[in-house]
């Protein structure tokens, strides 16, 4: 798999986890959804890049 595949898969997982944390904390709405979703997606993308780099060693 390429680095882009790792980044995409982890970004989607981060988005789902971020929204799950939001709903688990009892938050709802458009603004919290954007904050938790974007934060999860960015964090997931960064982790995907790091996983790819670690696998290439």
UniProtKB/TrEMBL annotation:
Entry keyword set: Membrane, Transmembrane, Transmembrane helix
Residues that span the membrane, as ranges: 9-28, 34-53
Keyword Transmembrane set for record: yes
Record's protein name: Uncharacterized protein
Source species: Stieleria marina
Lineage: Bacteria, Pseudomonadati, Planctomycetota, Planctomycetia, Pirellulales
């Amino acid at each position: 798999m390429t680095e882009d595949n790792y980044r995409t898969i982890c970004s989607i997982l981060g988005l789902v986890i971020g929204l799950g944390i939001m709903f688990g904390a009892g938050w709802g709405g458009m603004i919290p959804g954007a904050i938790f979703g974007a934060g999860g997606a960015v964090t997931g993308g960064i982790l995907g890049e790091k996983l790819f780099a670690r696998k290439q060693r």
